Write the structure tokens for this entry.
Amino acid sequence: MSPKLSQVKPLISIVMPCYNSEDFIQEAIESVLCQTYKNIELIIVDDFSVDDSKSIINRFASQDRRIKFIYKEVNEGAAVSRNIALDLAQGDYIAFLDSDDVWNVDKLESQINYLLEHDYNFVFSYHNVMSTSGEYCHTIKAPKTVTRNKLLFSNFIGCSSVVISSSFLGAKRQRDIVCRNDYMFWLDILKDGGVAYCCPGVFHSYRRGFGLSSNKLRNFKFYCYVISNAT
């Protein structure tokens, strides 16, 4: 076993933005709390939801002290919510989970072990695509490694699959754009020659057809915007 794996397990901060996710957020939170990797903090930032999301999150937060809940009094978008959570994060590593996605129970343990074994700073994985009702659609795989140049052709990195070193991330934050903000984020992180490594395996399910990403034309327009504004 690698010496790093025998040390005290590092803290992983999980960043979860939420907006009107009452139909899905319970499942998302439960998929975090059921992780085999236990040294975590879950930071949920609700972006002024007008449905029952707030009460669902409050119920979980009152039962598990690892959950930090911030309720915003104004709607500002997912990028701002993620950045608020990143500023509060205390972990050695950061993971991202959207409020309508679901992790497999071994997601964090598998990825952190892979990351530490290979001394990587940035890992992601394959993921399943599911319908809004939770039915399996298909699996999306990815290259073994992703550089910034490779990422310019397509976003191979699923947001809810990422684990990244806090020291590697540093002060970088998401740009405040309403769509494809995670894609721009990876480009910004990798612009100085960094590499993201794929931990082979399927460790989460992405819910298709919910939120801004469900509008294909809008998504394509913001893809073009990201490519033209990546610096």
